[in-house]
């Protein structure tokens, strides 16, 4: 049964990006606060400021104002962008090289600091160095079966560790010293400090695109066999039941308490609280789905959209209105981590009371009595 958890709102229309140049495609996106960066197949970076407007009726729209665009000088697509806001730097992967550019004017850093030989890269959101003016970057190297860890400063980079893997890695996420890796035939957890590794489960990267995503401290979300979205901790165990995706999921994102997945035709929304599918949004030609500081962004080759979550209280009230008491109570309990304690207690008491009256009206007196208590 469906819940209206998100609305899909356009953020950047194709004309703003490419005008009448049909050959331009969006390859990657990054969002940091109000700053939206787009990398394209013709080696340009575009910088937009994204403003959110809420009408008196509560309707949300986004206005993207183009700041500037910059040609990087290669004949290759910009394949990945990551912002390091503490350094006011944007890390740009193009032609197997990560270049540091200024977040404001998109100029490369004067020292020319760069990381060469990167297939793909990610940032460590739970860094181990403790230095606020440095970001930790993990790359899958062009060298076979090799992962490298770097410390990136404002104008220089420094290699920290090189780790060899039992098979060729094709996707990676990092938490502290732990790497969650999709190899050719399986997922593993590898502690790059101690070298200890733990097998998770088999997976064939030749048949499907692997998904490895850090979703919290020492926890990852992976695209498992049989169309399952699997959760795994750094200890190699799962503390949550899996969610049932379609077989051909392209990307996944987290917006608590929901896991959002993208395939060829749809965006699907599953609850992490009861693993049920709550919403399906038709969305064709999507190829990017990512979450940035709680903002879920999805993109086709030509446009960028934002999945705007409806307030949890509104979702709970909608569930109660359709007499789905159990789901409403599960969602209300899950909302505890998103709402200040005093506000939550007032809201939760009111929801219990409403749920009690619904059960009472359905002659479920024992259940109603428990809720009223």
UniProtKB/TrEMBL annotation:
GO terms for cellular component: cytoplasm; membrane. It is found in: Cytoplasm. Keywords: Cytoplasm, Protein transport, Transport. GO terms for biological process: autophagy; endosomal vesicle fusion; protein transport. PROSITE patterns: CNH (PS50219). The keyword Transport applies. The keyword Metal-binding does not apply. It comes from the Eukaryota. Residues 23-296 form the CNH domain. InterPro entries: CNH_dom, Vam6/VPS39/TRAP1. This is TGFA1 protein. It comes from Pardalotus punctatus. The gene is Tgfbrap1.
């Amino acid at each position: 049964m469906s819940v209206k958890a998100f609305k899909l709102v356009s953020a950047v229309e194709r004309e703003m990006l490419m005008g009448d140049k049909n050959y331009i495609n969006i390859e990657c996106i990054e969002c940091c606060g109000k700053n939206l960066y787009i990398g394209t197949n013709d080696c340009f970076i575009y910088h937009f400021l994204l403003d959110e407007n809420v009408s008196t009726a509560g309707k949300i729209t986004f206005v993207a104002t183009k700041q500037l665009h910059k040609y990087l000088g290669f004949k290759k697509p910009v394949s990945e962008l990551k912002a390091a806001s503490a350094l006011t730097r944007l890390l740009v992967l193009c032609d197997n090289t990560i270049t540091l550019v200024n977040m404001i004017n998109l100029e490369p850093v004067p020292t020319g600091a760069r990381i060469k030989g990167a297939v793909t890269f990610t940032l460590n959101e739970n860094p181990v160095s403790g230095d606020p003016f440095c970001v930790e970057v993990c790359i899958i190297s062009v060298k076979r079966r090799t992962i490298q860890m770097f410390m990136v400063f404002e104008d220089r980079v420094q290699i920290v560790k090189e780790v060899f893997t039992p098979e060729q890695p094709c996707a990676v996420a990092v938490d502290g010293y732990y790497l969650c890796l999709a190899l050719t035939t399986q997922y593993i957890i590898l502690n790059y400090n101690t070298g200890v590794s733990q097998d998770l489960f088999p997976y064939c990267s030749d048949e499907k695109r692997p998904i490895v995503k850090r979703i919290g401290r020492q926890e990852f979300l992976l695209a498992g066999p049989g169309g399952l979205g699997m959760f795994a901790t750094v200890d190699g165990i799962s503390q949550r039941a899996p969610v049932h995706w379609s077989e051909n999921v392209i990307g996944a994102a987290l917006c608590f308490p929901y896991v959002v997945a993208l395939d060829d035709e749809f965006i699907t929304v599953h609850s992490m609280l009861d693993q049920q599918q709550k919403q399906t949004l038709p969305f064709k030609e999507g190829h990017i789905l990512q979450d940035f500081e709680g903002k879920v962004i999805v993109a086709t080759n030509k446009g960028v959209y934002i999945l705007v979550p409806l307030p949890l209280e509104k979702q709970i009230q909608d569930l109660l209105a359709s007499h789905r008491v159990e789901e409403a109570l599960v969602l209300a309990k899950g909302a505890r981590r998103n709402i200040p304690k005093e506000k939550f207690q007032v809201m939760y008491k009111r929801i219990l009371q409403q749920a009690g009256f619904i059960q009472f009206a359905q002659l479920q007196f024992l259940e109603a009595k428990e809720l009223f208590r």
